[in-house]
């Protein structure tokens, strides 16, 4: 019995390790400066915005070990469709994620390229139409350094988009960074909205959600009336 | 049956009902993890918690033991890019919060100090108004969250320092504990006591609990109605990390 339990644990831990390794193997490398298409002053502004502003580095060698700093983030409760706080609302597909070092080289931030599939609410000054690509920025990430080492800037409990997935996105434009922050994401699977945030998951669990597991077209119609 | 007897019988019935329904509240509360008790916060096999008062930690190349102040906390500003925290006496101030906000957050710390005996940590939280640089470890710095990209984040905790603990003074490592943290606050509403009690809950070893009812400080997301002090079941859970 004990031997079976031990072997089960071994199999389970090797599976977990394999999963971790496969995730790490897929970690993107830092972008070489000459390959960066973003204007230099914008890149500098973005990298400065993500400075850690502390005497220590947030970069944790992968796999994680105790002794390195990490962040735990707690979110406020939001309405299911927080359209008022968002200046831009789109349905989009994440096509690429690219990590960058902050300017103090103590932290990472991710840039997500999002192909717009439908524009629901748009800032007048921005081109937010289907087919165009917009950029989301967010602190945290995993990257392979030029010397081959993997580093992680771990933000626990954050909701981050995945490449290849589609989302209903509630965004806020950051003029100095020429990019967007996201206030909320709903994952879209088979045309239906899937909750990602704790408050939405709670509502879905308690049967109090209007939009979880419902067609994205329903939320989209409501939002287009409210914009 | 006389009228007097009927009254006595009614009184007796009320007394029996009171015993049946009210008495259980006075006995030990049943705590169920995930319902009225948050899980423990464990990362890579170590509790994310400050060490118990009086235990020694290997930090900065020497053994350090928490003094009678316990965990010190200071309100700071975030410095400009490329610089560290701006605390009072360290080039900065504590202008990020109003007096009312600081008072509300102080209540959160005081409520944790009140629980120090019951939760087994014996940890007091003491406000200081000078930089904790040089006083480190066993400190929490509190500042406004400047990260414009975190959307609707209410607050976050950065576990900035860890140390190897030696509980039985035999010179060998027993476990890791956090000895420094930064709490960044985006909140500016009436829930600042609830918010700070929750964030300190993280550095006392408690994890978020989405499925819990509102009796625990670790219920997420943060709502009005969350408690302002650790509940009996929060305390029971913390106790398991400070044996």
How would you explain this protein's 3D organization?
The complex is a heterodimer of chains A (227) and B (243). In chain A, 23% of the residues lie in helices and 33% in strands. Chain A is α+β, with helices and mostly antiparallel strands and 227 residues long. Chain A is globular and about 50 Å long. Mean pLDDT of chain A is 86; it is low at 1-22. Chain B is α/β, with parallel strands linked by helices and 243 residues long. Chain B has a single domain, classed as Collagenase (Catalytic Domain). Chain B is 25% helix and 23% strand. Chain B contains 4 helices and 11 strands; from the N terminus they run H-E-E-E-E-E-E-E-H-E-E-E-E-H-H. In chain B, helix 2 packs across helix 3. Residues 11-26 of chain B have low confidence and may be disordered. At the A-B interface, strand 2, strand 5, strand 10 and helix 3 of A face strand 10 and helix 3 of B. Strand 2 of chain A pairs antiparallel with strand 10 of chain B, so a sheet runs across the interface.
Per-chain topology:
The complex is a heterodimer of chains A (227) and B (243).
Chain A: H1 2-25, H2 40-49, E1 60-61, E2 71-75, E3 88-101, E4 108-121, E5 133-139, E6 141-144, E7 150-153, E8 155-156, E9 166-174, E10 179-189, E11 192-194, H3 198-205, H4 216-226
Parallel strand pairs in A: 2-8
Antiparallel strand pairs in A: 1-7, 3-4, 3-9, 4-5, 6-7, 9-10, 10-11
Chain B: H1 3-26, E1 42-43, E2 46-47, E3 56-59, E4 62-65, E5 71-75, E6 77-78, E7 85-86, H2 99-114, E8 125-127, E9 139-144, E10 153-166, E11 175-185, H3 192-203, H4 232-239
Parallel strand pairs in B: 5-8, 5-9, 9-11
Antiparallel strand pairs in B: 1-2, 3-4, 3-10, 6-7, 10-11
Helix pairs in contact in B: 2-3
């Amino acid at each position: 019995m004990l031997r079976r339990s031990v072997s089960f644990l071994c199999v389970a831990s090797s599976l977990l390790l394999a999963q971790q390794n496969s995730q790490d193997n897929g970690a993107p490398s830092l972008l070489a400066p000459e390959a960066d298409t973003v204007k230099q002053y914008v890149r500098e502004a973005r990298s400065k915005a993500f400075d850690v502003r502390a005497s220590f580095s947030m970069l944790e060698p992968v796999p994680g070990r105790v002794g390195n700093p990490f962040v735990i983030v707690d979110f406020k409760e939001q309405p299911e469709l927080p359209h008022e706080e968002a200046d831009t609302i789109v349905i989009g597909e994440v096509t690429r994620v690219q990590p960058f070092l902050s300017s103090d080289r103590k932290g990472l931030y991710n840039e997500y390229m999002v192909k717009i599939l439908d524009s629901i609410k748009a800032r007048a000054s921005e081109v937010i139409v289907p087919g165009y690509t917009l950029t989301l920025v967010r602190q945290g990430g995993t990257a392979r350094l030029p010397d081959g080492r993997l580093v992680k800037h771990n933000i626990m409990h954050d909701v981050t988009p995945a490449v290849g997935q589609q989302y209903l996105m509630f965004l806020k434009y950051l003029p100095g960074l020429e990019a967007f922050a996201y206030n909320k994401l709903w994952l879209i699977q088979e045309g239906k909205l899937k909750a990602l945030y704790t408050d939405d998951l709670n509502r879905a669990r308690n049967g109090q959600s209007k939009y979880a597991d419902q067609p994205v077209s329903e939320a989209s119609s409501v939002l287009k009336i409210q914009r | 049956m006389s009228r007097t007897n009927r009254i006595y019988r009614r009184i007796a019935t009320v007394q029996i009902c009171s015993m049946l329904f009210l008495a259980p509240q006075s006995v030990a509360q049943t705590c169920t993890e995930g319902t009225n008790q948050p899980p423990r916060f464990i990362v890579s096999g170590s509790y994310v918690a400050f060490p118990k008062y009086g235990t020694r930690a290997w930090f900065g190349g020497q053994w350090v033991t928490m003094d009678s102040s316990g965990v010190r906390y200071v309100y700071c500003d975030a410095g400009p890019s490329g610089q560290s925290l701006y605390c009072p006496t360290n080039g900065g101030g504590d202008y990020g919060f109003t007096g009312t906000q600081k008072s509300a957050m102080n209540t959160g710390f005081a409520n944790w100090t009140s629980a120090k005996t019951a939760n087994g940590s014996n940890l007091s939280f003491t406000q200081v108004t000078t930089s904790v640089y040089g006083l480190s470890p066993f400190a929490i710095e509190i500042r406004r969250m400047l990260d414009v990209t975190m959307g609707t984040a209410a607050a976050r905790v950065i576990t900035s320092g860890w140390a190897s603990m030696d509980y039985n003074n035999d010179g060998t490592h027993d476990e890791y504990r956090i000895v420094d943290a930064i709490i960044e606050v985006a909140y500016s509403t009436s829930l600042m006591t609830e918010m700070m009690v929750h964030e300190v809950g993280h550095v006392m070893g408690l994890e978020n609990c989405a499925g819990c009812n509102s009796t625990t400080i670790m219920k997420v997301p943060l709502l009005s109605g969350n408690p302002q002090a650790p509940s009996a079941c929060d305390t029971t859970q913390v106790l398991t990390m400070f044996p």
